[in-house]
Amino acid sequence: MDEAARADDVDLGFVEESEDYLLTNTYFPSKVGGRPAWLDLENLPQPDELKCASCKEPCIFLCQMYASLDEPDTFHRTIYVFMCKNPGCCQANRNDNFIVFRNQLPRSNKFYSFEPPQEDDTKAETVHLCTLCVVCGCRGPFQCPKCKSTFYCGPAHQRLDWKSGHREKCGMGKASPLFPEYEIVLETEKTPSPQDASEEEDQETCQMAEYEKMVEAGKAGEFKDVPESELLKFAQEEDEAFSHFQKVISREPDQVLRYCRKGSPLWISSANIPSPDSIPKCSSCGDDRVFEFQIMPQLLNYLREDGLTLDWGTLAIYTCVNSCEVSDGYVREYIHKQDILSPE
User: Fold this and answer.
1) Of 17, 153, 244, 300, whose CB is crowded by the most CB atoms within 10 A?
2) Residues 6+ apart with CB under 8 A from 329
3) pTM for this structure?
């Protein structure tokens, strides 16, 4: 990606089915779910670095964004997002159950060919130089004492694998806490035409008139006849940020991601918007972080599982303004979670 060319452009991410081999590290994918396609194949994060800050259990890979920059050291560059699936760790407007890492490599490196791979070459993923957990695909330094050929990131995923049958048939475990796997494809967001803008303005006028009617009904004590879901909808539409959010995403309702490095997030609420001073400095070089991309609530539609409670309004990822050199593999970056709270 040419950073200079996209100071104002927004790329929208959509999920698509893909051939499995195209989602491996060999092809530098942007993707959702499955196992992470690690870039640096040797210096992976340690298991303790991928534990939830709340429950201390392993976080699961959510998605990754391949986002190269126009610099020699960032020819290959990927941002990884992990999350804890424990419902008790998912708290409104808190990021404790999320972890973000950045990794980058020059074009000439010891892991990949200097020339890009051909899409008709169904080569498997490039071999890692460290062992991976059979369950989650993260660094797996712990070996199964029985078969000595299966590895885990820690006791939690070893127990999960053994419960699925690995204890009886070593190497045959099939337990998986992973999310469904999809490719993320990008398209540049289109600027609305004058006609589209006029239609949106007319729609907003109608919505405001309907909202004002609801307010008058409330003053007259008539809210008892109005469904609570409708009241919440209009209370949210009164929020200017939420109204703008709805208007923008309505143009491409299936978008699951918005990429605009050094741009601004599309906030879902006027509350809990971080100030520039509140974004932590880069943990590696100490310089500022800038907005890079956000994960939209539409992605939740592809992650739903029976009995699993996941929720967010939007997830905004901030990375080092310099994309500073990563000396020890993967550097931690920052994620801001913004939710919509029901009115009290």
Assistant:
1) 153
2) 40, 42, 43, 44, 45, 103
3) 0.84
